[in-house]
Amino acid sequence: MTAPLDPLDPLDPLDDLAAFRRLAAAKLGSFAHTTVPDAPGLRRAGVVLCAVEHDGVPSVILIKRADRGRNAGQWGLPGGRLEDGETPEEAALRELHEEIGLAAGSADVLGRLDDFPAASGFAITPVVVVLDDPGPPAPSPDEVQSVHHASLRRLADDDTPHWVPQPDGGSLLQMRLGPNWRVHAPTGAMLWQFREVVLLGRDVRVADFVQPDWTRR
């Protein structure tokens, strides 16, 4: 699978972080993201789709959450709930630093994707960040069990998204990023929209994606 390239840019954004930055800025700049409206009981969170160079190729950071607390043991993106007065972008960048020790500023944010209405009662805002030289992650043991990297090329591969039929007639998305690595919505839905909108240039939405029952906790 090859990402669409700018004809004036000879570098492949799946293999070059600077080329990916240019591609992502262009795609997100023209993407009309949706925002979940305020409602009684709605809580908000921000997460980061953070692209860095890992093992010589552009990759997105994922985490496996600690085996205690909210979302124990689940795959996720660095992020968390908004504090009073924060924007989703501010909360996402703060949590990126608190959870895995990486510092990013507003200049590193290229844009955002659709809010995802999680079954847990959160509206999750994904922001896309590129860091050229972030240094090694330093995960907080209270929140993060481990840090992982999914290459952009793996995200773009045809065999990464799998749709599993459900008894009610719907389909459950699994982003199969490696052996025994299955990421479901909400995180899987945000990764899929990132893949489709930024890497493949398609205008898609994900708010109605099926979420496993265990994500409601």
Overview of the molecule:
The chain has 217 residues and is α+β, with helices and mostly antiparallel strands. It has a single domain, classed as Nucleoside Triphosphate Pyrophosphohydrolase (Alpha-Beta Complex), CATH 3.90.79. 20% of the residues lie in helices and 30% in strands. It contains 4 helices and 11 strands; from the N terminus they run H-E-E-E-E-H-E-E-E-E-H-E-E-E-H. The strands form 2 sheets. Strands 1, 2, 3, 4, 5, 6, 7 and 8 form an 8-stranded mixed β-sheet that branches.
The value of Rg in angstroms is: 16 Å
In whole angstroms, how far apart are the ends?
Answer: 36 Å
State the CATH architecture. Answer: Alpha-Beta Complex
Question: Strand fraction band?
Answer: 25-35%
Q: How can the largest sheet be summarized?
A: 8 strands, mixed
The name of the CATH superfamily reads: Nucleoside Triphosphate Pyrophosphohydrolase
Coarse structural class: alpha+beta
Choose one word for the global shape: globular
Q: For this structure, what is the CATH class?
A: Alpha Beta
Write down the domain tally. 1
List the helices and strands and how they pair.
Elements: H1 17-29, E1 43-54, E2 57-65, E3 75-76, E4 79-81, H2 88-100, E5 109-112, E6 116-117, E7 122-130, E8 144-151, H3 152-156, E9 161-165, E10 171-178, E11 181-183, H4 187-199
Parallel strand pairs: 1-7
Antiparallel strand pairs: 1-2, 1-4, 2-3, 2-8, 5-7, 6-7, 9-10, 10-11
Protein name: CoA pyrophosphatase
Cofactor: Mg(2+); Mn(2+)
InterPro entries: CoAse, Nudix_hydrolase, NUDIX_hydrolase-like_dom_sf, NUDIX_hydrolase_CS, NUDIX_hydrolase_dom
